Structures are given as C-alpha cells and as structure tokens.
Amino acid sequence: MTYAAFRSIGAYIPPKIMTNADFEKIIxxxxxxxxxxxxxxxxxxxxxxxxxxxMGAKAAELAIQRAGINKEDIDLVICATVTPDxxxxxxxxxxxxxxxxxxxxxxxxxxxxxxxxxxxxSVAKAFIESGMKKNVLIIGAEKYTSxxxxxxxGTCFIFGDGAGAAIISATENKDEAIVDVNCSSDGNYDDxxxxxxxxxxxxxxxxxxDAKMACIKMKGNETFKLAVKTLTSDxxxxxxxxxxxxxxxxxxxPHQANYRIIKAVGDALGxxxxxxxxxxxxxxxxSAASIPMAMNYAYEQGKIKKxxxxxxxxxxxGLTWGSALFKFSPNN
Length: 332
Ligand code: UT7
Known about the structure:
Distance between the termini: 23 Å
Radius of gyration: 19 Å
Shape: globular
Largest sheet: 5 strands, mixed
Bound molecules: oxa(dethia)-CoA
CATH topology: Peroxisomal Thiolase, Chain A, domain 1
Strand order of the largest sheet: 1-7-6-4-5
CATH class: Alpha Beta
Order of helices and strands: EEHHEHEHEHEEEEHEHEHHHEE
Strand content: 15-25%
CATH superfamily: Thiolase/Chalcone synthase
C-alpha cells in the first residue's frame, strides 16, 4: 500500500505591513475596535505588480528545498486560490510551475476559498494513494488586497496577502501517512461570502465596477456564528472517527480569520494555547494561504518537529470546510 506523507512546509510573507492605525486613516474604525473584535494588529500587503503566482512560487521554492527533492520529481502542482493571477486562464498553478522552471507537469487551481489548502491536501493524498502521482506540490496563494473594497468598514480590515506551500510525497511507511482529510461544502450559504461580479454571470462592465461587485462582500456576523459551529463539529467528527483526544494533537492549526473564532473553537474542543497556532494578529486572514502560513510560522519558531501530530481546521466561502490530520514527516 502506498501512503501520502506531509514532507515540508514553506511560506512567503510580503514585507510590507498595513497596521490598524493605517485603517484609522481610511475608514471609521479604531485600533482598539479591530483588536478587540478580531485580534488582528496588522496584515501583509503585496506590491502592486506582485501576483499570487510570484508569492506562491517563493513559498514553493522553500517547501521544495526543505523537502530535499528535485524539482524534476514533482509530478502534480495544485494551487488553492480565489484571487488567481488571471480570472479564467492560465491557472495560477501553471504560472507557478513555469516560474519554478518545472518540466511539463499536470497543474491546476482549486477554488475553495479559505478551505482551499485543506482541499489541496485531500486531492494530493488521493492522487498519491491511487498510485497516479509521487510528489505533489500544494500551494495556497492569495492577494485579497486586489478584491477588497476599502470603503467597506465591515470587511476590508480583516484580509491580507501571502502564500504557503507544502510537498506531499508517496511513502510505503504507514507511520508517516497522512491519517485523514475530510472536506465538505454547502452552497445554500453562498451569499454569506461572495464576489458577485466579474464572473460569467455578471461579467465585468462599468456597472459591475461602479457597484464594486468584483470585490468581496461578507455578512461577517452570520459567518462568524457558522464558522465557530462548523470548525468545532468538523474536528469533533475527525477526532471521534480516529478515537483521539485533544491530548493526542501537538499542533492545532485553525483557519486564521478572527482570534475570537479561534478562541471559541479552541475552548469548545479543549485545545490549550500551547497547542493552538495563532498568526491572525500578524497576518490577518489570508484565506487559502492562512493555514500554511500559520504552519510555517510555527515551524520556523522551532515548534513543529518530525513526528508531531498536526490538525488543520478550515472554513470559508462556498461555504466550504474541512480538516486534515497528519504526522509531520520530513525526510530529515
Ligand atoms: O475567512 C472566511 C470566514 N470569515 C470569517 O470567519 C469572518 C467572520 N466574521 C467576523 O470576523 C466578524 O463578524 C467581523 C470582525 C467581520 C465583525 O465583527 P462583529 O463583532 O460580528 O461585528 P458586527 O458586524 O456585528 O458589528 C458590530 C458593530 C456595528 O455597530 P452597531 O450597529 O452595533 O452600532 C458595526 O457598525 O460594529 C460596527 N463596526 C465597526 N466599528 C468599528 C463594523 N465594522 C467596524 C469597524 N470599526 N471596522
């Protein structure tokens, strides 16, 4: 039997910082309000000409180097993003593969909003276990600043830019195997987080631009309540299925949307502060990049070590949600 092993993590954190004080200058808000309601102090902003593929390629370079594999051995590239370089084509994954200098390779994007990286983990696992692929590069890369309406005081201060990446490879060693990934969705809640214009239903026009329909619209408070409920039950199902308790988890990495959500979910699950990775204060919500950026942060702090049990827990537009349970299994 062939299994899928989570070999490495990498990220690209754009150097430019936008603080809450910067938002005080453009919307009716305060550092105190944003900190209290979200835990966010600052977020990273990419350069104007910096695309998700640029950020994704930089994160991928690090993940490839840390996995100790040759680029030529990568046989699948998946990029999770809802802010692709181009609306339709080419996919951001194709652009990243080219920027990395990979030989011709299967490459495509996944659109699952903030759950995208967990969806990508699931797909990588399935391709490897089926024997079709051996080394899968998964990336979460987002440039939310390109879809923000900076007059929408209920939404614009939450999001930031960045990218994370990982290598998932085939192994015959069951001890290294990703234990489980469970992903789901419910399109009945499609109105909670949406970019209503710019797609084929409401193609780009002056009217769409004037109404800022190509920007993200979020019903924050309704989303908040569903996020807490879903993120909690998602993990409870996963833990019960594998007969695990919270003591078995070394690193709980929830989607970084709002510290109050992270705290409520952590408390409901009995996860302590040591176990729970939090980067929302530094990076804000970076959607599909949020979980790998958070994992990379904990890794670079020396907290995540070989053999540690990691649990991802994500929730986002669609609605989509998912969790992944695995032992971090670098080659060295
Ligand atoms: O990543 C995908 C999933 N996304 C999420 O999980 C996001 C979930 N939602 C949230 O994080 C929160 O709902 C927000 C941070 C977006 C908003 O916090 P909230 O506690 O749900 O606030 P609210 O929308 O219920 O608004 C409360 C008050 C309102 O004033 P009144 O009506 O009580 O007088 C708003 O007008 O806060 C006001 N408000 C603000 N005040 C200062 C809304 N935005 C701001 C702001 N600064 N930026």
